[in-house]
Design a protein that fits this description.
0% strand, mainly alpha, 7 helices, globular
Length: 181
């Protein structure tokens, strides 16, 4: 156990790096199929959640584990070419608020709840352009949260992901109509 505690920051950084790679792929891949994006989002969120957990940030971990579960559920809807029902979106929102309030350590953790609620918008899109737009909004919120909480492994992941999402948006979405958002 002492070895795990000693190497926790390094393990946390490695997990965040793995999450970053998965989320970069989700943000930059050129595909019209959300299933591919959701696969990367699932793995990215799972790894970043575990990084938060190792850093002792239970609120960040709860948010990202819920996000991984949401991505997995949405993947199956996408795979079966069915829209995500509004009642399911409601369940996502209720779960985010309930679980995060139960592990809330301070008022700043409300920012994690808001960021998690915007994540519902990210993964609920039907194309990559809309996903990237909402990911930018989501990353700005997570970056603010990470700075305030001192979650530097996750901050590195979120700043990098923001940059790559903007890059993906510039590469793939610059010719799209503004009404598409």
């Amino acid at each position: 156990m002492e070895i795990l505690i000693r190497f926790a920051p390094y393990i946390s950084m490695a997990l965040s790096l793995g999450g970053l790679i998965a989320m970069i792929l989700a943000s930059t891949v050129k595909t019209k199929k959300m299933g591919v994006i959701l696969t990367f989002v699932f793995f990215g969120n799972f790894l970043v959640a575990t990084s938060y957990l190792l850093d002792g940030n239970n609120n960040g971990a709860a948010c990202c584990y819920i996000g991984a579960a949401q991505a997995l559920i949405n993947y199956f809807f996408d795979k079966n070419q069915k829209p995500i029902p509004m009642w399911l979106v409601g369940i996502y929102a209720i779960a985010i608020v309930a679980i995060n309030v139960s592990v809330m350590a301070g008022i700043i953790d409300l920012l994690a709840i808001i960021a998690s609620l915007t994540f519902i918008m990210c993964i609920g899109q039907n194309n990559g352009a809309k996903y990237r737009f909402w990911t930018i909004v989501n990353m700005v919120l997570w970056i603010a949260y990470d700075i305030i909480k001192g979650s530097y492994a996750a901050l590195f992941t979120h700043v990098s992901l923001l940059l790559f999402t903007v890059l993906g948006k510039l590469i793939h979405d610059r010719n799209r109509d503004k009404q598409d958002l």
